[in-house]
Amino acid sequence: MNATSLLPDNLPLRDLIRQHHWLGRLSPALQERLLQTLSLHHAPAGASIDAGELVQSLCWLVQGQIELLDSQSEVLLTLNAGDWLGQSHARALGATAARASHDSTWTDIGDPEFTDIRSELPMLRHLFPTEATAEAPAARPGSPSDPALNLMTTQVRTLIKRPPITLPPQTSIREAAEVMREKRVSSVLIVEQDHLFGLITDRDLRNRVIAAGLDTSRSITDIATLAPMTVDVQNPAFDALMLMARHNIHHVPVLDGQRIAGMITATDLTEQHSTSAVYLAGEIYKQTDVAGLQTSAGKIKRLQQSLAGAQASAYSTGHIITAITDAITCRLLQLAELRLGPPPVDYVWVAAGSQARSEQTAKSDQDNCIVLDDSYDEKAHGTYFRELAQFVCDGLDACGYIYCPGEMMAMTDTWRQPRQRWAEYFARWTGQPDPKSLMLTCVFFDLRAVYGRSELLDTLRAEVLQRTRGNSIFLAYMVGNALTHTPPLGMFKGISTIRSGENKGKIDLKHTGIVPIVDLARVYALAGGDTAVNTYDRLDSAAAGGAISEQSSRDLRDAMEFLAYTRIQHQARQIRAGQAPDNFMNPDDISNFERTQLKDAFQVVQSLQSVLGQRYKV
Question: Considering the entire predicted model, what is its pTM?
Answer without folding.
Answer: 0.61
